[in-house]
Amino acid sequence: MKPLLFMGSLLLLATTSLAQNCAYTFTFAANAFAFCVSPYGTIGMIQSPIGTNQLNATTPVEGFEYIYVDESGGGGSIFQVPGIGSTDAGKPTFTQPNGAGKLPLIATWPAGFGLKETITANPMARQILITFTITDCGAGCSYSGNFVRVAGPELDGQTTANYAASGFAGIAYQNHGLLVESTGPCGGIVQGTISDLTNANCGGTPFTGTGGIFSQVFFATVPNHHATMKFTYQVF
Fold first, then answer.
1. Is the pTM higher than 0.90?
2. In the chain, what are the domain boundaries?
3. What is the pLDDT of residues 102-123, one digit of tens each?
4. How sure is the predictor about 12, in pLDDT bands with cuts at 50, 70 and 90?
5. How far is CA 138 from the centre of its chain?
6. With respect to CATH, is domain 2-235 assigned 2.70.98.10?
7. Nearest CA to 214 among 178, 175, 160?
8. Could you tell me which residues are beta bridge partners of residue 227?
9. What is the pLDDT of residue 112?
10. Contact 103, 94 (CB under 8 A)
11. Which residues, including other chains, have CB under 8 Å from residue 47's CB and lie 6 or more apart?
C-alpha cells in the first residue's frame, strides 16, 4: 500500500501546484502548445509539446518588474515574480471580453497608475503576446522608468540550459528554446538567481548553467498620461 499512497501524494502535489500556478489555461492541441496565467497575472506554465514543461512545473519563475520616477524626484517599484515569493502588485482582476476560455485575457490592477495587461497568443508560432498599458496616471502626471519581463526557464524539465542575448531578446536553448523579447531598448541574460533586473546590463556573456532571460522597455507617460509596453515569449 505504501507505493500507492506515495503515488497519490504525488498526484495531489501536481494537482495543487497546477491550481496555484494556473488561473486560466489555454491549450492549442493542433499546434502542440499550451500556457497558463497565474492568479497574479504572470505566466504559470508553458508547454511545447503539450506535456513538456519549459518552466518549472511546481514553482515557475516568470513575471515582471518596473521602477519609475516622477518629475518631483519621487517614485517607486514593483516586483511581481510569485515563483520566488515576490507579489508586490497583488492579484489583479481578470476579464475575457470574447468569452470564457477565449483570448485575450485582460488583467487590471486598481492601485498605482492604472496598470492593464492584455495577454493573447499566436499558437502557430508558439508565441505568448503580452501588452502592458499604463491606462491613465492622472492629469499632469510625468512618470518614466524601466519595465522588465523576466523568466527562469527549465527547458524540457532540465534546470540547466545555454543562455545568450541578441538585440531586444534574452534566449535560453537546448533541445527546445525559449526567448523573451520586447520593443526594446534591450534584452539580456543573468546567471544564477533572478533578482532586481530594472538596472541590469543589457546583453550578457553567453553561458551554460542556471539563469534567467529578460527584456526591458523604457516608458514615459508624457504627454498623454499613459504608456504601452509590449513583450513576446516564443518557444522554438
1. no
2. 2-235
3. 999 999 997 656 789 999 999 9
4. very low
5. 27
6. yes
7. 178
8. 134
9. 58
10. no
11. 33, 34, 35, 53, 54
